[in-house]
Amino acid sequence: MWDITFSIEDINIMFNAFSDTYLKIFYSSFPKKVTQLTPKRNDWITLGIKTSCNHKRELYVASKSNPKLRGYYKKYCKILSSVINEAKKVTYNNKIKKFFIPNKTTWDIVKNGDRQNKQHKE
Questions:
Q1: Are residues 10 and 55 in the same domain?
Q2: Among 47, 71, 86, 105, which is most buried by a count of CB atoms within 10 Å?
Q3: What is the pLDDT of residue 78?
């Protein structure tokens, strides 16, 4: 397989033969895997929170090159955290009020919220 590749005199044809051989071996050794990601179901995430998180990322990048924005970035993070916490409280309180067995619902929320917090911190 490689003997034919390196016996060619023209460098362009040799490179194309090498590339073809390499890619054949690569794709046969590492086939593409198709995986489906299951989206996280966080009912408390609104369009406004998503927009604010994107803006926070932009501010972070900008604050790295401009130290004057560092204070504004920190203030924005605190406000966004309080908005997210309030959205979580409202959503979970509404779930608890909606269901007939509030104790079970409360514990389900606590368990799921704990998992989400661990994933969010990582």
A1: no
A2: 105
A3: 96
**Tokens linked to 101:** 């067995």
- Closest CA relative to residue 73, chosen from 49, 84, 57: 57
What number of other Cβ atoms are within 10 A of residue 70's Cβ? Answer: 14
Q: Which domain holds residue 19?
A: 1-35
Orientation of helix 47-65 relative to helix 69-98, angle to 10°: 160
Amino acid 55: pLDDT: 95
- pLDDT by residue (tens digit) across 37-51? 877 778 888 899 999
Picking from 26, 14, 12, the residue whose alpha carbon sits closest to that of residue 4 is: 14
The pLDDT assigned to 101 comes to 64
Helix (H), strand (E) at residue 74: helix 69-98
Token reading at 117: 């917090």
101 part of a folded domain: yes
